[in-house]
Design brief:
The chain is an alpha/beta fold. The strands form two sheets. It has an eight-stranded mixed β-sheet with strand order 6-7-8-3-9-10-12-11, with helices on both faces. A four-stranded antiparallel β-sheet has the order 2-1-4-5. A hairpin with a 2-residue loop joins strand 9 and strand 10. It is globular.
Length: 324
């Protein structure tokens, strides 16, 4: 269990598994399963930002969507604010969905091009009946736009009239409309220019301070994650391999995979980047033992057959490696 403090968690994920059936043949029979998320457990506390990092294809976004029940988990528990989120029926889930929202990665595809900004943001207000009349609805939309750095006149415009950074602000305003307690930020700045990324990250931090928000911040950019996160979870091939306070994990990484991710972050124009060797193995046929052994520079014979148990490095810093 990836824990932080003795304060009751807002979100508690226990033994989460998300397996997708792999079908083949003329009858499309299930021959095996793709283990996108494989036995993941962690906690997020109120007002905290937990960063979830890893390469594309490691299962980060799948995990985020499974927590929100946008994808059905194969097994596990999601306890949110003391409620078993996975046990809710459709009606109960709809009522509780306002407490958990998501900001998607691509601001170009996550907004309906046929809807105005007022319709996009107001849709959630209508679904959850959060505005007493049209005047209150319009006032709330204006408040949300101003909260994310946009103007009231933007409400009548369409998504194609905005830049990528502005579209992502609209996506954030839409998430804020229902006054959520936790927001899953699914790589919210990866599709934006570097100059705009900092503005959006700073906005998210300001909103957190103003509204007491809690974030699960999914990303592959460790520099961004270190800037915004209190704790970091490092994910590889569906599993958490290292976790702890953000500064400690990034400044003193212990798992070879975390070290490789950090080495791949450019620190200067002339510095050569030490990139990961080989490709991420297929979750359809993951390696035995330690899942990272096929790419690990310090792997030994036991790594191929024995899966490492997570152990405490110091305080809240943990790592799943035989030799870290």
């Amino acid at each position: 269990m990836v824990a932080a403090t003795k304060i009751d968690p807002l979100l508690e994920v226990k033994n989460m598994r998300v397996y997708f059936p792999h079908r083949h043949g003329i009858f499309s029979r299930t021959s095996s399963h793709i283990k996108a998320v494989d036995d993941v457990s962690f906690e997020i506390h109120p007002g905290e930002t937990v960063g979830l990092v890893g390469e594309s294809g490691c299962g980060k976004s799948t995990l985020g969507r499974a927590i929100l029940r946008l994808i059905k988990p194969t097994a596990g528990q999601v306890n949110f604010d003391g409620i078993d989120f996975l046990a809710l029926d459709k009606q109960e889930l709809r009522a509780r969905r306002r407490d958990l929202q998501i900001v998607f990665q691509d601001p170009y595809s996550s907004l309906n091009p046929r809807m105005t900004v007022a319709q996009i943001i107001g849709e959630a207000l209508d679904i959850h009946q959060l505005a007493s009349d049209q005047e209150a609805r319009a006032k709330r939309i204006t408040e949300l736009l101003q909260q994310v750095g946009l103007n009231a006149e933007h409400a009548s415009r369409y998504p194609h009239e905005f830049s990528g950074g502005q579209r992502q602000r609209i996506g954030i305003a839409r998430a804020l409309g229902v006054s959520p307690k936790l927001i899953v930020c699914d790589e919210p700045v990866s599709a934006l220019d570097v100059s705009v990324q900092a503005q959006v990250v700073n906005l998210l931090q300001d909103l957190q301070a103003q509204l007491g928000l809690t974030y699960l911040f999914i990303a592959h950019d460790l520099a961004v994650v270190e800037h915004i996160s209190d704790r970091v979870l490092v994910m590889y091939l569906g599993r958490i391999v290292e976790w702890g306070p953000a500064e400690r994990v990034i400044r003193n990484p212990r798992h070879p995979y975390t070290k490789a991710l950090i080495a791949a972050v450019p620190k200067g124009r002339r510095e050569e980047k030490e990139l990961l060797k080989g490709d991420l193995p297929s979750p359809l046929n993951p390696p035995g033992g330690c899942p990272f052994h096929t790419r690990c520079p310090i792997a030994e014979a036991r790594c191929r057959t024995e899966r490492p148990e997570a152990r405490r490095v110091n305080d809240a810093h943990h790592v799943a490696c035989h030799f870290a």
